[in-house]
Structure formats: C-alpha cells, structure tokens
Hints:
Elements: H1 7-14, H2 18-25, H3 33-46, H4 51-57, E1 64-69, H5 75-90, E2 94-99, H6 108-120, E3 125-128, H7 134-142, E4 147-150, E5 163-166, H8 168-181, E6 186-191, H9 198-213, E7 216-221, H10 226-238, E8 247-250, H11 253-265, E9 275-279, E10 293-296, H12 299-323, E11 336-339, E12 342-344
Parallel strand pairs: 1-2, 1-3, 3-4, 4-5, 5-11, 6-7, 6-8, 8-9, 9-10
Antiparallel strand pairs: 10-12
Helix pairs in contact: 1-2, 1-3, 2-3, 5-12, 8-9, 10-11
Amino acid sequence: MANKPTLRDVSEATGLSSYTVSRALSNGPDVSDASRQLVLKAARELGYVPNRAAQELRKKSRSSVAVITASTSNYYYLDLMKGVQRVLRVSGRNAVVADIAAEGVYTPEVEDAIVQDLIQSRTAGIITTLTLSSENVKLLESWDIPVVFVDSAPPEDATQVPSIWTDNYTASMTAGAHLAQHGYTDWLFLAYPSRWSTRAERERGLHEAATKHGAALQVLETENDSDSACKTLSNYLNTPGRTLPRAIIAGNNPLLHGVLTALKQREIVVPTQVALMAFDEFAWAPLLDPPLTVVDEDSESIGVLAAQTLTRILDGQLEAERRGDPPVPSYRPEDRREVNADLIVRQSCGC
Length: 351
C-alpha cells in the first residue's frame, strides 16, 4: 500500500495547526465552521483518514462487504442482496447495507461521509449501485478497498474498475415496441434524476422506440421516491388542457408506487384508460390488479455476479498478503460485463 497522507499533511495544506486539524476532524466544539469545512475539504482531497482507522486497517480481516444502495424502498436492492448474501456466506463473509439516498435524494456530502465511515469501519470491499465520485473511488483505491459497480457506471477515469450493468437500451427498445403493438402513440416516462446512470440508456431506448413506431414520448423527471413521484405526476395531470397519456412507464419501484397512488386518487382505470409498465420485477407485481408488466433485470443474478467478482478480488488480496506483497486489488477485463433484461408481459399493458 502506498504511503498514506498524515495529519501534518492536512495541517500544511490548510495552514492550520495540527491541534486545530485534529479537533476539526473529531468534530470538536472549539473549531469554527469555516475551519472545519476547510479541514474536511483538504482531508478529502488528500485522501486522509484519521489514524485510528489506519491502526484498525492493519488488523483487517476482510470479512465484511458493504453494499451501497440508493433508497432501500426499491425492491431491486432486496433481490440484489439475496444474490450477494448467497455468495458471501460460502466464503465466510457478510454484507452490510449503506444507504446513500435513504429518502431517494442524493447529496455529495452523504456520499463522502459514507465512504469515510466504510474506510474507518474496516470494510473489505464495496458493491455500489450508484456512481461514486472519482475522488472517492481514488480514495478507496489508495486504501486497497476494491469496488464493484452494479447497474451503474464507474467514473470515466476509472477504466479498470469492475462493473456489471444491464443492457437498458435494448430492454427499453423492447418495452417501447410492445407498447406500439397495442397501438399506443402517447407515452409518458416518469424518470428519476440522471444522477442514477441507468436513466440515460432507458430514456434513449424509449426515445428511439417512439421514433421508430411513430409515438410521442414525454419524459417527466421526479425525485427518486414515491411521494415525489405522486406529486410530480399529479401536478402534470392537473395542468389545464393536459390529456391523460395512453401509456405510462415508471422508472422503478418507488416511482411506480407514486404512479399507482396518483391514478387511484383520480379513479383512473388500468389498462382501460391508461396502460402501465415499470422497470424492475418485484414479488407482488403478479398480484396487482391488473398484474403488472415489467422490465426484469433479474437483480438477484446480478448480485451473484457482483459478489463472485468481489470474492475473487478479496481472495487475491489475502493471497498477496500471505506472500508478503501489497494487497493491491487485481482487476481483469472480464470484470466489466453486460447482462440482458427480459420483458415480463402481464395485463397492465393491455394484454
């Protein structure tokens, strides 16, 4: 492992005394907000982690893996965790969940705090469902903590970091083609913010499908939680002169919940008045009335692939340590792969 930045480095970068830097990092009450922010910014840029974490990391057992999610209300993550846990149990490891957007709203400050916490808690490796900042990926790399991205894109400069993603473009083209088979020409895609990298390919696929089949696609962005989705769709439908789209595609489970709430409040019947489709399968989708048509990414299988990839990397680090070599994560070209998604057709689309 390369030499780590020290408290003195942070002191020199900020022009503050080592005492002030130490008090700022430990959230001491006798440090001004301006000084604390200056210290935190310098520590983050330098990749500095308090010494207590470094002391613990030297005794690291590599037994705990963190799965970074973005709102655990999404059933995608529940099935993903099933696959992750299935693999980790065999290797004697365990998984913990770190929710980076508990209310569906992402902030860089929460991301930074979670990454720091994971380093200090001696996390062996990370599976993340959200694109992390380039700075945080480099920070984790400096501490020899491997990262596997799941259904999200690594930063552009992290060209070797493992990633398992779904072919959302083709899946969206398939979904759009199915809507066109019903003769629907007016589609609404209720989408989460573009911070979630899957948004771009899903939107691109739907746009191209709409163009190909002579349909009009309206993209309506909302925050990534059910309450915001319900409010956003309600405001859209309440606009004077607005007509009800013939088909609505919900970007994920939380947004689907918001759509169903808004439609129920207005006594709009699915699929007679509006066809409904959503991304991501979940256990009770077949039990809805009518049963829901979904794009199924099979997140449990993705979780298995991600955990298998991370397990191989962690085992390689342990072997390197036994040889007396630095435990630098070893990534392979095959660690970056694309998987397919299926359209599960039920009755909510009009079939």
